[in-house]
Amino acid sequence: MEQKPILNAAHHNPASAAGEVAWVSAVEQVYRLSEGWVDEALLRELHAFRQKALEQRFYLVMVGSFKRGKSSLINAMLGVDLAPVAVVPLTAIITLFEYADEAFAEVHFNHESPQRITLNEIAEYVTEEKNPQNIKRVSYVRIGYPAGLLRDVSIVDTPGVGSAFEHNTQTALSFVPKIDAALFVCSADTPVSRADLEFLQTLRAHVPRILFVLNKADLLNEKELIDILQYNRQQVNAAIGAEDHFSWHVVSCKSPTGKYAVQHLVTSLQQLIRTEKKQILNQSLRHQYRLLYNQISMQLRLQQETLLIPLHELEQKQQQLQQSMSLMQSRQEEFESLVNSRVRYIRQQVDETIQSLTQQLRRQLQEKYLLQSSRVWEAMQHQGFQSFQEQQTHQLIEAFQQVKSQLEQTTRQQFSELLETYASRSQTFLHELTQHLKSLLGVDFHLIADQFDLNVYTAFYFDYGKGLSAAYIPPPFWIRWMPASCGIKQYMRKLYNHYQQLLTTNASSIIYDLQYKIQESFRKFQYDLHTHLELLLNRIQQIIDDTLMHRREHSSQVQQRFSAIEKCLHELSAWEIG
Questions:
Q1: Pair (243, 341) in one structural domain
Q2: Does residue 455 have a pLDDT over 50?
Q3: Domain boundary among 227, 261, 295
Q4: Which residues form a coiled coil (predicted)?
Q5: Which of 411, 381, 565, 567 is nearest to 484 (CA)?
Q6: Phi and psi torsions of 171, nearest 5°
Q7: Same structural domain, 209 and 322
């Protein structure tokens, strides 16, 4: 395939020159031209880009929904348990694994200096249990280890779908430029969902290479594995294109040897790095360079446009902008209130469904063990006490399994539709805001808004409690010395109370788990949206405020500053990707 020229000035083309040297030279020139004109966050991103190009770092990001076994897979790939494995969601914190001659772990905070910790302390910072809602303000955790695979590639672990791309905090912004390939992890017991496929479409726009892993192969037999693999392939190919012939690797972290050993995946990754690293890195650098360049140009053009507006009009526009933002945020808050009520309704449905089942089972147990105790006693003697109790436990499990399947389908669909509606409305809100800013200030802000894709939040995983289990309760030895009816009733009452407790414990566990997943997913969704809006609006407001201050203090230098920006834009255009 013919590659189009990437720069206006041919002699500046980093893609056609000597790889990392050309990219470093290009970004250094852009940095020089941008310094003093754009904000510090953007300059830090330029610096991170330069380091990546200079060191030729190759970053492999692990993505996939919760409970697909990403952390377990990383541990199997490295041959050591470094990534914490949790039965509850991890916080939205990125963990970076890189090569080091001696093992270490380092926590990077949002506003504090990095802190060295032991490998055993990692879970204290990245798990929801030890660091709920990231109250410790962790930016990311960096782990070094002398693993052979890490000589070729640095691995980025993401807790749940999309956190490395859509969580618009300083952490995500600093890591997105470094991602070169993605390992999309599916689980053999869960087919790819519509939300997975939507996220893959977003992922494909950011990452040059995507590889697929079907994890937990040990859960299915050979025929079932073939069926789920074929289904997943068809769904993925239909969503993002069959022409790419994406590679799939079937693995089991519990099988160190054999057909599904993780080592086969490691070997394929190492082969990919040896043969295609340079090409993939160049695609990744090209993509990020274009994003950075567009953001720099947008900031410079905004400053230039504000210089052309008469001072009194600029002050009026500042007030109009503040009023518009307040109005739009008010409209958004009203909409969020409606959505929150809908979330509460879904949670209430979960509670009512489980409670209804529990009450039904309680009545059955009461009828069986308290009102028909003699008949049940005879059945136990005939069948065997332990066998009878195992059968009873199995019946309860089946009842919960049936309602679980119904809830899994209906609740997931309701919540997915709700978030899709919210995402659509929020995207409209962002679009309205950027259009208003364009008409108000004459600058197109879609370059920032388009970086925030909300589709991925329609995916989350349900884990239904601990399951039902019961220890065998034999009849007490003293029952033979008591009147038959009295002893039997006491034993039946004991069994009844035991099963009542099992119902209460497991019903509560299921309700809590499902309601927590719904509320937590929506909370993170809202947080990410508000963070993005705040960053966008604060950046615009700061540019206007700075311009006003400069205009008031240096009114005679307006033309000089305008000309300086014009010159900067002209010189910058020589480094634009075409």
A1: no
A2: no
A3: 261
A4: 311-367
A5: 381
A6: -60, -55
A7: no
Report yes or no on 31 lying in a domain: no
CATH number of the domain to which 230 belongs: 3.40.50.300
Q: Is the pLDDT of residue 171 over 70?
A: no
Instruction: Output the six-digit token pair for 561.
Output: 């500053």
User: Domain check: are 476 and 358 in the same one?
Assistant: yes
Residue 150 has pLDDT above 90, yes or no: yes
Query: How many Å apart are CA 133 and CA 520, to the nearest integer?
Result: 9
Instruction: Show the tokens assigned to 535.
Output: 């960053």
Per-residue pLDDT reduced to its tens digit, 51-93: 888 888 899 988 877 677 888 899 999 999 888 876 555 556 7
Q: Is residue 38 part of a domain?
A: no
Distance of CA 219 to the CA centre of its chain: 25
At residue 467, the 3 state secondary structure works out as coil
Q: Which residues contact 222 (CB under 8 A, 6 or more apart)?
A: none
pLDDT band of 2, cuts 50, 70, 90 = very low
Largest interatomic CA distance in the chain: 108
Let me know if 65 is exposed, middle or buried by CB neighbors in 10 A (0-12, 13-18, 19+). buried
The model's pTM is 0.58
**Strands (DSSP E) found in 259-345:** none
Total of domains in the chain: 2
Contact (Cβ atoms closer than 8 angstroms) between residue 355 and residue 362? no
Give yes or no for residue 365 having a pLDDT over 80. Answer: yes
CA neighbor of 71 nearest in space, from 175, 156, 176, 190: 156
What does the pLDDT read at residue 430? 60
Task: Please choose, from the candidates 141, 199, 165, the residue with its C-alpha nearest in 3D space to the C-alpha of residue 287.
Answer: 165
Question: Rounded CA gap, 91 and 6, in Å?
Answer: 39
Query: Which helix H or strand E contains 394, and what residues bound it?
Result: helix 385-441
Work out the pLDDT band at 11, boundaries 50, 70, 90: very low
Strands of 138-145's sheet in order across: 115-117, 104-109, 138-145, 94-99, 154-157, 59-63, 179-187, 209-215, 248-250
Is the confidence at residue 379, as pLDDT, over 50? yes
Domain carrying residue 384: 309-571
Residue 8 lies in a domain: no
Q: Is residue 5 part of a domain?
A: no
Asked whether residue 248 falls in the same domain as residue 344, the answer is no
The identity of residue 456, as a single letter, is V
pLDDT band at 1 (very low <50, low <70, confident <90, very high): very low
Segment 310-361, tens digit of pLDDT: 777 767 777 776 776 676 666 666 666 767 777 777 778 878 888 888 888 8
Residue 21 has what DSSP assignment?
Answer: H
Span between the terminal Cα atoms of the chain, in Å: 17
